[in-house]
């Protein structure tokens, strides 16, 4: 097909030089794909390089402590990716003796690997004819063919997968997959694509019908829930603080945070003290609200309205094990907590 030849030709002249494009080692490809899920290349590249340096083989990653992996991942968000990454590394190292599955169907069985990632690894490493479909591919195909079917519906996903499979270069699936994704990232961009120099414009339905800004179609998700978090930043005897590990299957699983008091609405000092009394640990010398305006941390499914309350005390709260303030940087924490630690100067408070 002409679109197939055009995309591969464009890619040969415009592709970016990226480290994972210089290898067919499935460990490196898998690592890059997991990191780049829901992450732009400019943000993900430093993390990829850090992981390769710290864990040059799948065995190195498998032997790492989960907390070390989460710490290195800190700032990328969607921490389930890091936990799945570590779990899969351990599985491949112990059960598969370090050898990755060499087919789409085999790769799809790995934890944290879905259709897109399995297709990418299978085509890039093993030249399997498996079409990738990511946000860039959705956009290119929706615009070129003028498809109105929403991309985040079951019918839409099936339609775009079938279309991508129909136009993939069966002799060179790796370069085609790279080409269509790169084309969407650099040429057929979400906003203000440079259609005047686009090699596909003559046959592009969206260009002809002036519907570029309307495609692809995506149904709106439910409105994110609001949650109100009050973090208790203890300064104990001017030397220690308290952080705790999050458990369960919620956000930030296995990451560390300051003790949390969740409320139904944003609290002022009077309301906060009333809530704090329910914890039976209201013994402090000084209480200060770090941010008078809620810090809003937006996640895909919820928005966290957050306050940090600095509590100076000489009494260790019950059922808590304090740490030295100097050690706080060694723990893997969510970016919301990290940003606070970076801004809040513990040393000036002691």
Automatic annotation (TrEMBL):
A GO molecular-function annotation: 8-oxo-7,8-dihydroguanine DNA N-glycosylase activity
Single Gene Ontology BP annotation: mismatch repair
Q: What enzyme class is recorded for this protein?
A: hydrolase
Q: What UniProt keywords apply to this chain's record, in alphabetical order?
A: 4Fe-4S, DNA damage, DNA repair, Glycosidase, Hydrolase, Iron, Iron-sulfur, Metal-binding
Catalytic reactions of this protein: Hydrolyzes free adenine bases from 7,8-dihydro-8-oxoguanine:adenine mismatched double-stranded DNA, leaving an apurinic site
InterPro entries assigned:
A/G_AdeGlyc_MutY, DNA_glycosylase, HhH-GPD_domain, HhH_base_excis_C, HhH_motif, MIG/MutY, MutY_C, NUDIX_hydrolase-like_dom_sf
EC number(s): the record gives: 3.2.2.31
Q: Which Gene3D superfamilies match?
A: Helix-hairpin-Helix base-excision DNA repair enzymes (C-terminal), Hypothetical protein, domain 2, Nucleoside Triphosphate Pyrophosphohydrolase
| Sequence similarity | Belongs to the Nth/MutY family.
What's this protein's function?
A: Adenine glycosylase active on G-A mispairs. MutY also corrects error-prone DNA synthesis past GO lesions which are due to the oxidatively damaged form of guanine: 7,8-dihydro-8-oxoguanine (8-oxo-dGTP).
This protein's name: Adenine DNA glycosylase
Biological source species: Bizionia echini
């Amino acid at each position: 097909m002409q679109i197939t030849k055009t995309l591969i030709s464009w890619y040969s002249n415009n592709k970016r030089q990226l480290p994972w494009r210089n290898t067919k080692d499935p460990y490196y490809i898998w690592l890059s794909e997991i990191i780049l899920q829901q992450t732009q290349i400019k943000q993900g590249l430093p993390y990829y390089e850090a992981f390769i340096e710290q864990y040059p083989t799948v065995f190195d990653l498998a032997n790492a402590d989960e907390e070390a992996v989460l710490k290195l991942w800190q700032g990328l968000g969607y921490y389930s990716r890091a936990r799945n990454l570590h779990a899969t590394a351990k599985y491949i190292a112990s059960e598969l003796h370090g050898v990755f599955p060499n087919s789409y169907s085999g790769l799809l069985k790995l934890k944290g690997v879905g259709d897109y990632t399995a297709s990418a690894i299978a085509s890039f490493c093993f030249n399997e004819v498996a079409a990738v479909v990511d946000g860039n591919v959705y956009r290119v195909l929706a615009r070129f063919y003028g498809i109105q079917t929403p991309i985040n519906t079951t019918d839409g996903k099936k339609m775009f997968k079938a279309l991508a499979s129909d136009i993939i270069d069966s002799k060179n699936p790796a370069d085609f997959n790279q080409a269509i994704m790169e084309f969407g990232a650099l040429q057929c961009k979400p906003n203000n694509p440079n259609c005047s120099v686009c090699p596909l414009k003559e046959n592009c339905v969206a260009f002809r019908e002036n519907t570029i800004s309307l495609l692809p179609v995506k149904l709106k998700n439910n409105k994110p829930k609001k949650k109100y978090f009050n973090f208790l930043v203890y300064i104990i005897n001017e030397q220690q603080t308290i952080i705790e590990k999050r458990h369960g299957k919620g956000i930030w699983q296995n990451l560390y945070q300051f003790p949390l008091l969740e409320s139904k609405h944003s609290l002022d000092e009077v309301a906060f003290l009333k809530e704090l009394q329910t914890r039976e640990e209201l013994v402090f010398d000084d209480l200060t609200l770090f941010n008078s305006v809620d810090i809003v941390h937006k996640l895909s499914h919820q928005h966290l309205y957050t306050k940090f309350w600095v509590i100076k005390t000489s009494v260790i709260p019950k059922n808590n094990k304090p740490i030295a303030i100097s050690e706080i940087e060694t723990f893997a924490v969510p970016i919301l907590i990290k940003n606070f630690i970076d801004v809040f100067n513990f040393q000036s408070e002691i």
